[in-house]
Protein 1
Amino acid sequence: MTVKLGFVVAEFNRDITYMMEIEAREHAGFLDAEVADTIYVPGAYDMPLAIKKLLERGEIDAVVTIGCVIEGATQHDEIVVQHAARKIIDLSLEFGKPVALGISGPGMTRMEATERIDYAKRAVESAVKMVQRLE
């Protein structure tokens, strides 16, 4: 069975999320998974609604989130990631389907974000493994 993935990709820090998305797509192909749909959202905080829309479609087996939250002058980055992660978990449980967290941050610099591009690959791996193990 080919695992059908939905991607939700943040446009904020697009120079980094673009590279994350490319790596995620390549790894999905390596794992013989299909990226059936992709929704682009402004930022990580905006992901839950797009995730829900993908999960409502019966053909999507799992959702992979791709985002990058870089530290700023305030604690805004921590709030964004904490609330996004909490809602992502809630949606996974509500729909009974894996939603993999491919959001790097908070508390990282742009250089650290560049070094963590492989978080997207890890999220794809997690999503595919969870679908296979929950069959």
Note: DSSP finds five helices and five strands in the chain.
Protein 2
Amino acid sequence: MSEGSVRDRTREFMLTVQAVRDRQGPTSNGAPRNVKKVDPVQTRKRFSEKAAQIGKDIHKTADKLAKLTKLAKSKSLFDDPAAEIAELSYVITQDVQRLNQDLEDLGAIHRLENPPNSQSNEHATSVQKSLQSHLKQTAESFAGVLQTRSENLQHQ
């Protein structure tokens, strides 16, 4: 398996294990489980902080993409920034992969810590979909820039 296709899902697994333990109630001997009560304020804070960081990271990736777009559109045969384009493309690819993983983690937090049919659940779903949409637009723009670069190289 290639390195790019391996995902660390440890955090998601641990969140799932905790959720199952929380739902199971007392242990088999009747003693109550050592269950931490989930503080809704802390839950919302954790979700909001994670979502805000993802939003900032998407914006930073979009800034890198703007720089890549400018470089890719240059048609100078003698001053071709191929190394810089390759490096920036690699960095953006890594950013998009990491952001996809972060969005999956955010979804796990959302599913495990928000009660269904609540206003906070609806808000969290909306935030998550918005972030996914922004990341999708960024990834599509990235693909377009790479296509532009390929076309420019073919015409030289």
Note: The mean pLDDT is 81.
